[in-house]
Design goal:
With 209 residues, the protein is α/β, with parallel strands linked by helices. Helix content is 44%, strand content 13%. It is built from nine helices and five strands. The protein has a five-stranded parallel β-sheet with strand order 2-3-1-4-5, sandwiched between helices. Helix 3 crosses helix 9 (188-201) and helix 5 (84-103) packs parallel to helix 6 (117-126). The longest helix has 20 residues, at 84-103. Bound molecules: adenosine-5'-diphosphate. Adenosine-5'-diphosphate is lined by residues 40, 42-49, 111, 137, 147, 149, 183, 186-188, 191.
Length: 209
């Protein structure tokens, strides 16, 4: 019923274009807005790398913000669980929020497992080409189990957490990401350098002239 009502209302919801356009934010900020989407298993290093990149960009005077999976699930998405449908909705909402931040001229770094390829592709479609950068934080499940920074793998292996990605729920790696960070081979610092370099090459940071 709710969807029908929503559909009926849609034609009367008018999009209001602002006077301040993305290029105005870009001129003032000295960089473009963009969404940098980290995906990978729990414990692969998404949050660690995103936080370090945030700090580096902040120190460079860039407008940057991290949207972190765990934090968003405490608030905006606290009504959602981990079924495929709820995971889809989780990523859809985060994609929309990331788009708003990007429209406000910011570099948004998102750290979500986002295990399904089609959900990530839906977010890519929300944004202009070149403004969505998918980064695969690659790490084997055995190493993630060893790291287990939040103790979740131990619980999942004991069967205490159902639908845990990599143990009892699938993870679909990106087929053509803008960047792969193999955190079993690369230090955190090397990963951060590679992300900054990617942003520069994509013309987001305006560093190389
Ligand atoms: P995720 O956000 O993907 O769930 P976290 O960033 O919370 O992962 O945890 C990753 C863990 O792996 C941290 O304890 C971090 O210190 C460790 N780690 C070891 N090597 C790396 C690396 N090269 N990059 C990122 N994290 C690493």
């Amino acid at each position: 019923m709710k969807n029908v009502a929503q559909e009926r209302r849609q034609p009367y919801v008018i999009w209001h274009e602002g006077y301040v356009q993305p290029e105005d934010f870009e001129r003032r900020n000295g960089h473009r807005g963009a969404v940098v989407w980290f995906t990978g298993l729990s414990g692969a290093g998404k949050s660690t790398i995103a936080r370090e990149v945030e700090w580096r960009l902040f120190e460079m005077g860039k407008h940057v913000f991290v949207l972190d999976g765990d934090n968003v699930r405490h608030g905006l998405n606290r009504d959602l669980g981990f079924s495929p449908k709820d995971r889809e909705e989780n990523i859809r909402r985060v994609g929309e929020v990331a788009k708003l931040f990007r429209n406000a001229g910011m570099i948004v770094l998102t750290a979500f497992i986002s295990p399904y390829r089609k959900d990530r592709e839906q977010v890519r479609k929300l944004l202009p080409e070149g403004d969505f950068l998918e980064i695969y934080v690659k790490c084997g499940v055995d190493t993630c189990i060893q790291r287990d920074p939040k103790g979740l793998y131990q619980k999942a292996l004991r069967g205490e957490i159902p639908e845990f990605t990599g143990i009892s729920a699938p993870y679909e790696p990106p087929e053509d990401p803008e960047l792969v960070l193999d955190t079993e081979q690369m230090s955190v610092e090397k990963c951060v350098d590679a992300v900054i370099d990617l942003l520069d090459r994509q013309g987001i940071l305006h560093l190389s002239g």
